[in-house]
């Protein structure tokens, strides 16, 4: 049964663009959006659903649908825009649809993604949505607008305009990430959680003082962003070893075609088959408890560290006339591809976790949020990141995750069509404007 909790009552009306800029009405100022007019998103009573039985519009083998739509039972206004965040590996799409025939009413935010290499299928899907706008949202197909962010918003800008014949509005990628994350933290119940093996999804209570924090966005690469307040952020670091690294290396090593297939292989693997562990160095008598090194015997001492030694031993046996064993189709040079997948997953996740901790220490940030499509709600990834943060901080810090971790940028772009003062926490522009006027 779907969880349903109150998420506030943002029924705030936009001011007229002609409203004069005086201190008494400064909080009502907003920048008039391009045609079509923006709408308020009413998040009163919003809740996350997990409905696998819902009929999916335009489903095909190229579409990956998320099963955690956000129901907006009190939103009735027409929404005539779609948001897309086009990264190096995936194109993430967010759109609103009315809940036709539902006793609750309102509508829902839908989440899905395509491989960026399949951008033509993504655009065809948007075209199908455009053709069905009247039934889905009560708007005219000609009113549709695309809010686009990510590198692909520039790379595919002309293609989207030429094929769809709609306005395409490009939004700053970092700006959208922060707007999206702030929305999820403050507006959607049961969105943010911590992860451990004993408590896989421990939901976090809402906090009023959400700033400052560190956002670690893991896509093809990794960006680490210090957020000091509404629309106040700075990219402080990152690493090129991200989801694209995992995808690329395993594409060379295995026959897996999709990211999900690679994650499934990692689930079946045992990294001890290829990684050199502390116990391999200190011997079997080292046990599983901590010793003089302060490390467990299962701690990874060297990623893929066993490969060279074991491969060389096999070749020596062959030279001695014993011959090489017939290779299994699921192995490479005698090593299971599942073991290599798990090892690589650990290596990338551990690396990101340690760098994230160091950045949080350097910038004195207690709260660390992990987002991006690399995570995919995958237990091994979240457990590794959580363990890294707890280990290096000696338990003083935690890693925070989101149920819509891959859609921060897309949701941020979607919200860029909203008026300037909406939501339970008041508008980000209102707060920024108040600071400017206080200086004057």
Automatic annotation (TrEMBL):
Region (Disordered): 1-28
Keyword check for Transferase: no
Keywords: ATP-binding, Coenzyme A biosynthesis, Nucleotide-binding
Gene3D superfamilies assigned to the protein according to its UniProt record, in alphabetical order: 3.30.420.40, 3.30.420.510
Keyword Lipoprotein attached: no
Listed SUPFAM superfamilies: Actin-like ATPase domain (SSF53067)
Protein name according to UniProt: Pantothenate kinase
Organism: Lithohypha guttulata
Lineage: Eukaryota, Fungi, Dikarya, Ascomycota, Pezizomycotina
